[in-house]
Every structure is written in structure tokens, then in C-alpha cells.
């Protein structure tokens, strides 16, 4: 493809246009480009190409396009996007691959509008070449990019192209559905000051003619005419009104109503020719030829019909009256007594009709196949996007879950460190003022004082003699050492310390274990030895009680104590 593009560019440079067929205005416009830069240069290029569209001289279009393409290829690649598309459209040998190069340049410069422009021109080119399946591919691609809303006219243009593909391939039911949708949009917006709604109504009328539903055709054409006469005030108003009158006349002619056909023909003929586009002028000549034929003016009808015969295959690449022109010529020659010419033209008509019918069947199938393939591809893409979305959501949920777990673990870890520090606090003994005031109401003040005194003596006993280190210590032995009894001691511990004797003893043992750890006892010894040294009968009970009182295991406590000690030594090396 790149080789083809290079060859075409060389051809444009080596063989410039010769005097542009005498049109000095284009020579001046091209020369003026030398004085412009940037946006002004691009706007001038656009204006030259737009003016070319209105010209009827095809050779002039080819010459100007070649010259202008040569300039843009050297000066501005954004302006060259338009040149590449016009090189395909106005050329002796069209090269659709240039659309790919134009699209690449638009995409390279992130120009969405130009990308849409290239796809639009490419679709219309394939339509003109009757390559409807290729046109369908690009139209459906544009339709997926632009959804309803936003720039609605861009989306409506795409729908219009889609309807034109269906219509050109004789898929009238599908075309009618698209056109009706477009008509409803303009009706809902009450937007009649634009040319497109009239094209839509006229297309719906054309479908009526093609399907021999003349009443429906007249309904749409009259609606289009009434709206255009009252609502349309654009420069192309005369052209649109003339075309509608031509189509109404054509419908009446098909119905056999010559008077109404002539009436609307005369309405169309009164508009200045310079206000009519080339295709509408051709329509007017063809209709006049038909009318002169049914009126019996065969010589005049023949001259008009022959003026519309295809000549230059390039100029007539968009010709509108094949095969109808051959049928009309056959009928005229029959009336003027030229049976051989009549038969020749009828054969040509029949051959073209058969060819078009066969082509139509193939084209319709190809369009439906292209549409089906596009839908399958689109569904597959949507599934892949959905799957990707699900995977991303799953990954986000997983990451969020991990973050929450790490966050909770961090909080638990920090809370355990706090417990470790609290457990290392040496002030384990409760003073008088810290004794609970929530003593039972049935106790007298004397009993409360006696119980507090007993608890104080219990704490002194534990501090002085550390009898809690005795693994077989009982409450009875302890009560005897305090000259009390089991019941009274248990009640005092419950009322004053709000705990039980076993819990009180285990707390002292745990504090003993913590003290041993801080003094290095565990460096060369096992947890079993630590448990026994602290007054516990075995390691299992020690671990359970340690975790209950501190919130962490002995292993966690030991590891974090060492870490804390190491950090402290680094901060205070002395």
C-alpha cells in the first residue's frame, strides 16, 4: 500500500496540471497558498476543495486536486488529509488505499473530526462504486464511535449513510426503518431549517415509488414540499424545492396522471438553472424527455434522452439514469419506426437490469453478512470489555481486601505492642486510694476497712515472700499465713480487688515472668524453664495465662522486647 501511495505522489509531482483547463481563478488560489501558513493555509485548502464539489467539469477537478495535493504533501500534513481523500474521488484511476493513509495522518495528529471526515468520504466513495459491503463496514464502525447525543448531526449523518446503503442495495424495509428513525428525530427537535430532513422525507417518498406505493410516495413528497416552502431558507432552497416537484411529477407520471405531472414539471422548471445542482438538472432533463414522449413529441424526447446517454466513464461514474435511459430510448425508437435501434436499446436495458438484479442479490447478501460479522465482532468486543471490567473489579476488591487485612493486622500489632509496654510497667501494686469503691452495700464501714487491711497484708506478703512462685500454692495456705480463713480471704479479694484468688496469683506470676525476661533469663533458657521459674506447673498453662493477661503470646512479647531494647540501645549507646 505504501508503494502505491508513493507512486501516486510521484505521478502528481512529475505530471502537473496543464493550465488547469483555462480556469485562472484556481491558478490564483493555488498561488495565494504560498503566502499562507498554519490554520489560514488549511482553511484556504478546504475552501478550494469545497468549490470543486460544485463544479461540473470533472477534468478540472482532477487537475486541481493533483496540483493541490502536491502542495499540501510538502507544506502541511493535516491539510494533506483532505488532499488524499480527494485524490481518491477525483482521479482517473481511484486508489482507495489513500483513505488508509489519510486516516493514519488524522489519527497521528489526534484529530477526531478528520478521522470522521475520512470515514465519511470513504463510505460515500464505496457507495458510489456500488461496493456496499465495504461502505457498510466503515459506516457501522462510525456508528459505534458516535452514539446518540453530543454532536447529533454527526450521528444522523452516519444513520443517513446507513439508510443509503440499504436503499442502494434494494433493502427497502431496512432503509425505511432507518429513515423513519431520522425523520422522527428531526420532528421531535422541530428542526426544519437544515437540508437533511428534506432528503430523508424525499428518500421515504422514493421508497414508495420503488415499491409502487404511490400514495405513500405522494404523502412524503407533499409533506417535504410543504415544510420546505414555509420552513427552509437556506441557499440550497431552490434546488430542494425543484427536486421535490420533479419527484412529485415522476410519481404522477407513473400513476398515469399527465396533467399533474406537467404542472409540477413546470413548477420545477421555473427555478433558475444556476440555483440547481448538476444531478437535479439531469433529473429535470430526464423528466422532460419522459413528458415529451407521453405527449407524442418523439423527436424532442429523443434529443433530450440522447443528451443524457453515458459518455466519459469517469465523468459518469455517478450516473443516475442507467438502465432507465435505455428503456426510454427503446420506447422512443419504437414510436418513430426504428425497430432495430429499439431492439438494441431494449437488449441493453435487459442486460443491465439482469446484471443489476444479480448484483443486487449478491450485494444484499454481502451487506447482511457484513452487518452480521460486525455485530458478532462488536458482541465479542463487548464481552471482552465486560470480562476485563470484571477482572479489574475483582483485582480492586482483592487489593482492597488485602489493604483492610494489613490495616487490621497493623492495628492489632500496634495494640499488642501497647499491651507489651503496659505489661512491663513495674507499678503492679494497688494503693489504698486505688482500691475499688464499688464494695457491696451490705458491708459495714468496719467490714470494709478490715477487708482492705487484709488485702494490703496479702500484697505485702506476696511482695516480701513471693509465695506465688510456689506451684502448689492454695488459698487455704495463704489464709493461714495471714491468720485468716479461706472464706474471708476470698471475699476480701472479690470485694476489694474485684478478682479471684487464682487470677490474682496468676497475674503476679506473669509479672514475675516479665521481670525475668527483662533481666535476660530467657536468653539461654526455654519457655518451659521460664514457666516453672514464674510459678506455673507447665508451659501450656503458662502460655494460656500469659496471653489472657497481656493479650500476646510469650514469644511475641520476647521478640518485641528484644527489638525495643535494641532500638533503645542504638538511641542511647552509653
Indicate how many domains the architecture comprises.
4
CATH superfamily of the largest domain: Homeodomain-like
Distance between the termini: 81 Å
Report strand %.
Answer: under 5%
The CATH architecture term of the largest domain is: Orthogonal Bundle
Low-confidence stretches: 1-22, 312-319, 430-434
Largest sheet properties: none
SSE sequence, one letter per element: HHHHHHHHHHHHHHHHHHHHHHHHH
Number of DSSP strand runs: 0
Mean pLDDT: 81
Described by the principal axes of the CA atoms, the overall outline is: rod-shaped
Find the CATH topology of the largest domain.
Arc Repressor Mutant, subunit A
Please compute the radius of gyration using only Cα atoms. 49 Å
Helical region count?
Answer: 25
Approximate helicity band: over 70%
**What class would the helix/strand composition place it in?**
mainly alpha
By oligomeric state, this entry counts as single chain
Description:
The chain is mostly helical. It has four domains: 1-129, no CATH class; 192-308, Tetratricopeptide repeat domain (Serine Threonine Protein Phosphatase 5, Tetratricopeptide repeat, Alpha Horseshoe), CATH 1.25.40; 322-423; 432-571, Orthogonal Bundle (Arc Repressor Mutant, subunit A), CATH 1.10.10.60. Helix content is 75%, strand content 0%. The chain contains 25 helices and no strands. The protein has helices at 2-14, 24-32, 38-53, 58-75, 77-89, 97-108, 112-128, 132-145, 152-168, 172-189, 196-210, 214-231, 237-255, 258-269, 278-295, 298-307, 324-335, 339-423, 445-465, 475-481, 486-497, 501-518, 527-533, 539-550, 554-571. α6 runs antiparallel to α7 (112-128), α11 (196-210) runs parallel beside α13 (237-255) and α15 runs antiparallel to α16. The two termini are 81 Å apart.
